[in-house]
Structure formats: C-alpha cells, structure tokens
Amino acid sequence: MNMIYAKIQILLLCLIVCGCSSNIPVIKAYSRPIEHKLYVNSAPPAIRAKFAASLSLYYQGKLDSASISLTSLTAQQPDYWGSYYFLGLINKDHGLLETAIGRFREAAKLPVNQPVLRSNIYLALGQCWELTGEFADAKMHYRAAINIAPESTAARDNYNRVSQLIAQK
Questions:
Q1: Residue 19 carries which DSSP code?
Q2: 118, 116, 55: which is closest to 81 by C-alpha?
C-alpha cells in the first residue's frame, strides 16, 4: 500500500513540476439531474431506448452527436416534447439562444406528464431570456416554472435574482 501511495505522490509531483496538467484535455460532462429516469420514462416506448442513448451522449458532453440523434427523434416522433427540450439545452449551451427558445416553445406546446419536467421547460426558457437581457420575460417564465412545480428551488432562486435585477434598474 505504501508503494502505491509513493508512486501516486511521484506522479503528482512530476505533473506539477513539468506543467503537464496544461496539456491534459478537459472533457465537459453534464451531471445527470435527479429527474433523469423521469426524462427517459416519459419517452414513448417506440423511441425510449434511442432517447436514453441520446441523453447518454448529452451527459457525456458529446453535444454534436446528441444533437444529431435528437433531431432524428423529432422526425421519428414529432409529438414528443423531450427531444425538443434537450435540443434546446444544446442550442443554449452553444449560445444559440433564439434557436433554443424556439425548441423550448415547441416542447412547451406538447403534453408533459410530470410537473417537474414541464417546469424545467419554463425554467430553461427563463434562463434563455435572462441571457438575452430580457429580464421581464425571464421573470415571467420563472414564475410559470414555480406555478407548475412549487418545489423547484432553481426556478425560485432565478425568479428572486431576476426580480432584484429588475428592481435595481
């Protein structure tokens, strides 16, 4: 055990001294939300496995591959909200806020069985509007998210922050 510990210390020392850490690629991964199973289970059975695979790509940070897969799912199952929602998240991550807003609006038009998941759509819309500087629209969408799922601390925190920003203007 002491030998393994010593080897780890030497390796860390080498990395620090050599500055090798700056050459190590960083892969951005997204944490799975508590609602992950709800997302997967909300998908129609005909596309559930493919949707789960798309989410796996998304959570691994493979956004281009996830986007291709999700776009395919929207063609295959155009009345499923989840594909539009995750495409919106990818667009938001890429800074394509207008496109993201359109995707989230598409998702919001479709039936969502779980209130927390429907609330997440409005939370994401609020975030997009906030990023564009449209704080009144952001506040309205955060309020909608709270009305749908009052337990959403993210929606409540964002609502309070945007309310303070509006009050400071």
A1: T
A2: 118
How far apart CA 87 and CA 119 sit, in angstroms, is: 17
Give the predicted TM-score (pTM) of the model: 0.81
pLDDT block averages, 10 residues each, the chain of length 169: 54 48 48 83 95 95 96 97 98 96 98 95 97 96 97 94 91
Burial class (CB in 10 A: 0-12, 13-18, 19+), 40: middle
* DSSP letter (8 states) at residue 149: -
Coil, strand or helix: which one is 150? coil
Going by C-alpha positions, the residue among 46, 34, 94, 42 that lies closest to residue 66 is 94
